[in-house]
Amino acid sequence: MKQFLREIPKVELHAHLNGSLNIESIKQLAEELYGEQTKEFAALCKRFIKFEEGAKMNDCFEKFGFVHELTATKRGLQRATELVIRDFAADNVIYVELRTTPKSNEKMSRRDYLQTVIDAIKSASKQYKIMVKLLPSINRGEPLAVAEETVALAVEFAQTEPDLIVGIDFSGNPNLGKFSDFTAVLSLARNNGLQLAVHCGEVDNPREIQEMLKFGMSRCGHGTYLTEADYAQLKEKNIPIECCLTSNVKSGTVANFNDHHFRQLMAADVPRVICTDDCGVFDTTLSDEFHWAMESFGLSRSQCVDLTVEAMKHSFATPQEKRIMQLLITERAK
């Protein structure tokens, strides 16, 4: 069964760039940047993917500092992007939407950051024969001015790279910031043709969930704490929930795989897709996520294929790219 899942052409719609570097790629990146690594570095890598029982969401966000140091230069960022794309392609992912928050430091501006990622995507997508899109991310824990700069850059780059810059991701630690502070800048992005992928209902915050649903989105990230009434709204508007099984279990927002809200989404027939979130941090692959879904919810092979087609339909790909994906998926499902 695992072989079947690996061989299915898959579609990844929720993947954060820095969190998608797996351990082997982190080691490779570090060695390319700094030379042979020490035993201490190897131990740090092990801690990167280790989650203690009872881990909370804040524990997950603390792990990203480790990777951010490796991607703090143009060279490191470019190589990291290439390695992430390579690893998705190795899992037979034929289409991936990468999300990343443009960062600035003494070595590069946010504009430099985005340009570096764009250049890396262009080269790696050709090398590994995979379709890749980019969603610049708004980190809700950062000042509004940073979000405004990010959207301005995204709108600008989308003019010259319309088939690459396709949307904006709203994410970050859900316990920080207020969604209402960002609605104006998100509206600006939407009014300029960018799709919105919004982390919604990642924590139990009913007031904010209703604000987000009223504002609207193209896709809903996680949706862990949505109600049946919320499900009905999403179903009516054909807005899918990006389900990240391992991420939710390891970050402590879901007790275990069997209790994941994917089961309720199936029962309510709400649009849903299976994603990895941060496959490096959570030590998983998209094939693994489908495996857990089959084990936990009794999915058949045909249902896994249907979920892949569902992801294709809800992607921000062009109509031509969707036709290509449909053919690839259909051919493998025969």
TrEMBL record:
A Pfam family reported for this protein in Swiss-Prot or TrEMBL: A_deaminase
Keywords, ordered alphabetically: Hydrolase, Metal-binding, Nucleotide metabolism, Zinc
All copies of domain Adenosine deaminase, residue ranges: 9-325
GO MF annotations in UniProt: adenosine deaminase activity; metal ion binding
Keyword Zinc-finger (UniProt): no
GO biological process, one term: adenosine catabolic process
Co-factor requirement: Zn(2+)
Catalysed reactions, semicolon-separated: N(6)-methyl-AMP + H2O + H(+) = IMP + methylamine
Entry keyword annotation includes Metal-binding: yes
Lineage top rank: taxon: Eukaryota
PANTHER family per the UniProt record, alphabetical: ADENOSINE DEAMINASE, ADENOSINE DEAMINASE-LIKE PROTEIN
Sequence similarity: Belongs to the metallo-dependent hydrolases superfamily. Adenosine and AMP deaminases family.
Entry protein name: GH19347
Species assigned in the record: Drosophila grimshawi (Hawaiian fruit fly)
Lineage of origin: Eukaryota, Metazoa, Ecdysozoa, Arthropoda, Hexapoda
Gene this protein is translated from: Dgri\GH19347
